Amino acid sequence: MVGWDKIYIGSCDGRVPGGISTVKACILVNCKLLKMRKVLDVAKREPGVKVAFSVHGRWDIAVETENLKLSDIADIGMHIYKTEGVEIVETLIEFPDVEWGG
């Protein structure tokens, strides 16, 4: 099994041999009432966003990113979080293909 520190720590800048240079992410957003359209427009304009769409359920918006460096994903998430009307943002990072040992 590969240790997560070897995969992610420093892997985005190429210092760790065999590290993952890019990953996909899904950013989930909860908005205040009547602010969803504005937040969705901001998310769609972010560089590196593959698709952003409204959803029904606990979250209001789902944002899928391209294969990006973790720092780029963090920038997208923080920019969306700072948008007026955003209440909660949760970022889900793609698991690398590793043997889970079981």
Q: What CATH architecture do you see?
A: 2-Layer Sandwich
Average per-residue pLDDT, rounded, comes to 84
User: Largest sheet, order of strands side by side?
Assistant: 2-3-1-4
Counting helices, strands and paired strands, the structural category is alpha+beta
User: So what's the overall shape?
Assistant: globular
| CATH superfamily grouping | Lrp/AsnC effector binding domain/regulation of amino acid metabolism (RAM) domain
Class in CATH? Answer: Alpha Beta
Low-confidence stretches: 1-16
Order of helices and strands: HEHEEHE
CATH fold-type name: Alpha-Beta Plaits
Strand content: 25-35%
Q: For the CA atoms, what is the radius of gyration?
A: 15 Å
Describe the model.
This protein is of the alpha+beta class and 102 residues long. It has a single domain (22-93), classed as Alpha-Beta Plaits. 26% of the residues lie in helices and 25% in strands. The chain is built from three helices and four strands. The protein has helices at residues 4-8, 36-45, 70-81, and strands spanning 25-31, 49-54, 61-65, 86-93. The chain has a four-stranded antiparallel beta sheet with strand order 2-3-1-4, with helices on one face. The protein is globular, with a radius of gyration of 15 Å. The N and C termini lie close together (10 Å). The model is unreliable at 1-16 (pLDDT under 50).
